[in-house]
Amino acid sequence: MSRITPEELRRRRVEFMEDAGRAFDRMLGADGQNGLVTFEQREDRACEVGDGLTRRLLEAHLAADDDAAGRGGEVACPLCGRAVHCDAPAGTAKMQKRKLLTRRGEVQYERAARRCPRCRRVFFPRG
User: Fold this and answer.
1) CA geometry: angle 18, 54, 58, nearest 5 deg
2) Exposed (0-12), middle (13-18) or buried (19+): which is 114, by Cβ within 10 Å?
3) How far from 58 is each of 8, 51, 55, 93, CA to CA, in Å?
4) pLDDT of the residue at 1
5) pLDDT digits (tens, 9 = 90+) for 10-64
6) Taking the CB of residue 69, how many other CB atoms lie within 10 A of it?
7) What are the CA-CA distances from residue 123 to residues 51, 77, 79, 115 (Å)?
8) Residue 111 has what pLDDT?
């Protein structure tokens, strides 16, 4: 079962396209240059707006992951390797905010934690 409905996917696409339009405007502006003169200025701005869009796509992709909410059934504990089950009914696992530093900057996402009863270690499956 997907975490994102087709309607939600369409809404997110529209929002992303609006962000992409703003990124385009930040780069080119009304005059086609947006006050950027040197190549270094142009490259810095292009990298900045491109990285922002990349982070947004990564966050959207992570949010769409079915296993994020703990619906993946059984996973192996990364410490002892034993099977750990998700006791919460589908869609009711407590989500925890996570941050990840990527090559393009920090992204935020949510994951359902699992706790190994043998090791008593809390971990987050799939990332």
Assistant:
1) 100
2) buried
3) 16, 10, 5, 22
4) 42
5) 999 999 999 999 999 999 988 888 889 999 999 999 999 999 999 999 998 888 8
6) 20
7) 29, 8, 9, 6
8) 83
Residue-wise pLDDT for 64-108, tens only, equals 876 666 655 788 898 899 988 776 655 566 788 889 999 999 999
Q: Which residue type sits at 65?
A: D
Asked whether the beta carbons of 15 and 41 are under 8 A apart, the reply is: no
pLDDT at 43: 96
> Got the DSSP string for the chain?
--SS-HHHHHHHHHHHHHHHHHHHHHHHTTTSSTT--SHHHHHHHHHHHHHHHHHHHHHHHHHT-GGGGTTT-EEE-TTT--EEE--SPTT-SPEEEEEEEETTEEEEEEEE-EE-TTT--EE-S--
Distances (CA, A) of 105 to 50, 55, 84, 111: 11, 7, 32, 19
pLDDT digit string (tens) for 54-65?
Answer: 999 999 888 887
